[in-house]
Amino acid sequence: MIYRTLGNTGIQAGVIGIGTEHLDGQTYEVIEQVIGAADAAGINMMDLFMPGEEVRRHIGRALKGRRQRFHIQGAIGSVDLREQYDISRDLDTCKRYFEALLRALDTDYIDFGMFFFMDTEEALQQVLQNGIADYAHRLKQEGVIRHVGATSHNPLIARKMVEMGLLETLMFSINPAFDMNPAAATLDNMLVEMGDHRLEGVDPDRAALYLLCEQRGIGITSMKTLGAGKLLSSEHTPFDQPLTSAQCIHYALSRPAVASVMLGYSTAEQVADACRYLTLSEEERDYAAVVRGQGGLMKGACVYCNHCQPCPVEIDIASVHRYLDIARLNPQEVPPSVRQHYNSLAARGADCISCGHCEQRCPFGVPVIENMADAAEIFGA
Ligand code: SF4
Ligand code: SF4
After folding, report:
1. Is the CB of residue 362 below 6 angstroms from any atom belonging to ligand 2?
2. How far is the CA of 379 from the centre of ligand 1 (A)?
3. How high is the pLDDT of residue 336?
4. How far is the CA of 370 from the centre of ligand 2 (A)?
5. Which segments of the chain belong to CATH 3.20.20.100?
6. What integer pLDDT is reported at residue 190 of this predicted model?
7. Separation in Å, CA 89 to CA 9, 92, 93, 135
8. What is the pLDDT of residue 191?
9. pLDDT at 237
10. What distance in angstroms lies between residue 111's CA and the mean position of ligand 2's atoms?
11. How far away, in angstroms, is 367 Cα from ligand 2 center?
């Protein structure tokens, strides 16, 4: 497993995580096999939003002896009232389901208490006004929640939560098709429209959210990384050809601030398949060839794909661009952590010899030489 630091939490998160949705309705034996395979592979990030008592209890049983090795995202507000999965913004209901999660897992803490499905202004106001945000922060003070986070599919609401200082971590739906959809689209619309060839270039609100999170030390975990499987299907992909799961994983992991992708599995073989990403070469992970069909719309903006490598002086061009993009948000006040990350690169903008090799290879027309000079000026190296 490859581990990345999840923002300011300091947690070393496996880049491949486990979203447990596909375990819903499975027997204990199946759940134990999947969680056992995940544990053996070094997976240590788990998202558990399902409110169902049975699946929670099975997962809790499978975690016996393994609990300390997993960092669990537990939803606040995910409920199954009227026997249907639903969302509640009622404080007492949220409390009841969160306490039931602790009991079902037979644990006295949840690593991340996640405000669930925060996609609208109304949801945000309800979480604030109904005492749910206070409840989560109180649990944090008591040590029941280690970190407060949220799940969201809407970059504007997510951004607002980050700017308010409400979160320490964010679970966000990330894939190249969503990144090219309008900011206000709902999750359902995003999934439906995915096949409509209505891609509009990388949405600036989504790009800005990732940069803001990296700037503020808010680690992101990615969901919907495979676009509910549509990106892998030649019938449903909005691109000229389907992506592989490794390309989708790599795309999400190449966004600023992203530490882990949460994938769903219902068999141990699927866990092994996802982890094969770790053994693949950069060429096999490279998604640029597929998403460059939208290159005209994305022209000039670095998508951190690494297609431009190798650089003769070994500049990590994608990383320089990631830090440069954050610095450009406010060049007068570059966060010290970003400056530190930039300075720790083995080669930096000032090392560029203007050979132009990268610009010939970049499918997105990024003016790399100019950007290297900009980075050298802003960071002084
Ligand atoms: S400069 Fe171009 S090829 Fe290199 S990482 Fe950025 S988008 Fe990809
Ligand atoms: S132009 Fe600069 S960044 Fe690009 S390959 Fe050459 S030395 Fe590396």
Report:
1. no
2. 20
3. 83
4. 10
5. 3-293
6. 56
7. 26, 9, 8, 12
8. 53
9. 78
10. 42
11. 11
Q: What is the mean pLDDT of each run of 10 residues along the chain (381 residues)?
A: 96 96 92 96 96 93 95 94 81 96 95 95 96 97 97 94 96 88 55 50 82 94 88 80 92 94 94 95 87 59 83 94 86 84 93 94 88 95 91
Ligand 1: residues whose CB is within 6 Å?
Answer: 288, 302-308, 317-318, 321, 358, 362, 364, 366, 368
Atom index in ligand 2 nearest the CA of residue 356 equals 1
Q: pTM of the entire structure?
A: 0.81
Q: What is the pLDDT of residue 361?
A: 84
Among all chains, which residue has been given the structure tokens 């290159």?
295
Whose C-alpha lies nearest to ligand 1, atom 7?
302
Tokens of 47: 């998202």
327 lines ligand 2 (CB under 6 A): no
Task: Answer yes or no: CATH 3.40.50.620 is held by domain 3-293.
Answer: no
pLDDT at 370: 96
| CA 311–ligand 2 middle distance (angstroms) | 5
CA distance 36 to 33: 5
Ligand 2 binding pocket includes 368 (Cβ within 6 Å):
yes
Question: What pLDDT score was predicted for residue 181?
Answer: 64
- Compute how many other C-beta atoms are within 10 angstroms of the C-beta atom of residue 218: 24
Distance from Cα 356 to the centre of ligand 2, integer Å: 6
| 75, 102 Cβ separation under 8 angstroms | no
